[in-house]
Amino acid sequence: xxxxxxxxxxxxxxxxxxxxxxxxxxxxxxxxxxxxxxxxxxxxxxxxxxxxxxxxxxxxxxxxxxxxxxxxxxxxxxxxxxxxxxxxxxxxxxxxxxxxxxxxxxxxxxxxxxxxxxxxxxxxxxxxxxxxxxxxxxxxxxxxxxxxxxxxxxxxxxxxxxxxxxxxxxxxxxxxxxxxxxxxxxxxxxxxxxxxxxxxxxxxxxxxxxxxxxxxxxxxxxxxxxxxxxxxxxxxxxxxxxxxxxxxxxxxxxxxxxxxxxxxxxxxxxxxxxxxxxxxxxxxxxxxxxxxxxxxxxxxxxxxxxxxxxxxxxxxxxxxxxxxxxxxxxxxxxxxxxxxxxxxxxxxxxxxxxxxxxxxxxxxxxxxxxxxxxxxxxxxxxxxxxxxxxxxxxxxxxxxxxxxxxxxxxxxxxxxxxxxxxxxxxxxxxxxxxxxxxxxxxxxxxxxxxxxxxxxxxxxxxxx
Length: 464
Prior knowledge:
Layout: H1 8-55, H2 60-63, H3 76-91, E1 95-102, E2 109-117, E3 129-131, H4 136-140, E4 146-147, E5 152-154, E6 157-167, E7 173-182, H5 183-211, H6 216-234, H7 249-288, H8 296-310, H9 315-325, H10 337-340, H11 348-354, H12 357-365, H13 372-380, H14 401-415, H15 427-437, H16 444-455
Antiparallel strand pairs: 1-2, 1-7, 2-3, 4-6, 5-6, 6-7
Helix pairs in contact: 1-5, 1-6, 1-7, 5-7, 6-7, 8-9, 8-14, 9-13, 12-13, 13-14, 15-16
C-alpha cells in the first residue's frame, strides 16, 4: 500500500484531481460573485429607472406648495402628490416605500415632503427630519439618478434604495424622490445564487474525482478550456461557450457551465427587455399627448426593420435595431410641451431646444445600453450626409449605415404623416423629396433601397 502512494500514476491522478477541484472552486467563486453582482447591478439599474420615471409624474411647482409641517398632510396639494406616488407604487408592486425629501439648508439633514409607505404606520409627516448624510448615494441622488451600492439599514428597516432628482422648469433640482425595495427580495436572490453555486461546486468536485482516473492527456485539454471559459465569463462575456466534445464527466461539466452562462445571458437580456418596455411606455405616453405624432416611433421602427432586412442586415442586429429605434425620440421628454407641440413656426431658440433631444436621449440610455452602435442611433439620427445635421455635425463615413437607415425611416414617416401645418405627402412627393435629399441629407444606398421598396409596394403608408 505504501508503494502505491509513491507511484507516478497516482501522483499524476492526484495532481489532476487537486487541480480540477481548485479550478472548479475558483470558477464557482468567480461565477457566484459575477452573478450576484450582475443581479445587484440589474436591481440598481431598475431602481434608477423607476425613480427617474416616477419624477416625470411630479409637478415641482405643486411640490413646493406642500407645507413642511404636520398640518401639511391635510392639504389638497399633499393629497395630489401622494396620489401620484401611490400610482407609481401600484404599477411597481415590488416597491415598499416611495417618498420625497427636500434639502432646506446646507446641512445633510433633509425634510420629508411626502412619504407613501406601504405600511401607513411607518409614514413620515411633512417636515420630519431625516439624516441623509448617512447615505452617500442619497446625497448623489440630488443631482443625478443613483442607487445604493449595498443593502442599507436604518430606523425603517433593511432596504435597497434608488433616488432621482425632481427638477423645476429651469432644470434645477428642488427635491429627491426615493424608492425602497424590501431587502428580503435581495436576500432571496443572494441565497438562490449561492444555492446554484454550491450545487455546481459539489457537482464539479465529484466530476473532478471521477475525471482524475482518466488519461492525463484527455483531462488537461478540457480543463484548460474550462479555465479559459471562466475568465471570459468573469470579464462579462456571457455569450462565450466552451467547446468540449465527448460523453464523459468533463464534457458534462462543460455542458453545465454552458447552461449556467446561457442562464446568465438570458437574465441580462430580460433586464434589458424590462428597461426597453419601461422606456417604451414612456414614449407612448409622450406620443399620446399629441395626436399628430401618435404612433410615430412604432412606424419608424417598422420602416427601419423592413429597410434593414431589405439591405441584408443580419437578423440579430435588425431585432436590436428595431428595439432601439422605438426609443429614438425618448429625449423629447426633456423638451417643453409648448415647444414640442407648437403648431406655428418655431423661433430660433425653440429650434435649438428641439435639437437637444438626441443628446438628452443618449444621456438617458447611456447608463443602460452598452452597445455604442445602438447608442449612436439615439444621438445621431438627425445627422446629415453633408455634415449639416446635429448634434455633432457628422458626415458620410462618420455616420453608420444603421443610423442612416433610421434617419431615412424617420423622415419618411414625417413626410407621410399629417402635421398641423401641412397634409401628408403622396407617394410621388415622398419619393421626390428622398431623391432631392440623396447624398446631401440621406445616404444614397438607403434612398435607393427605400424607393425600390415603395415602388414594389413593400413600404405602405398614408397614400395606400
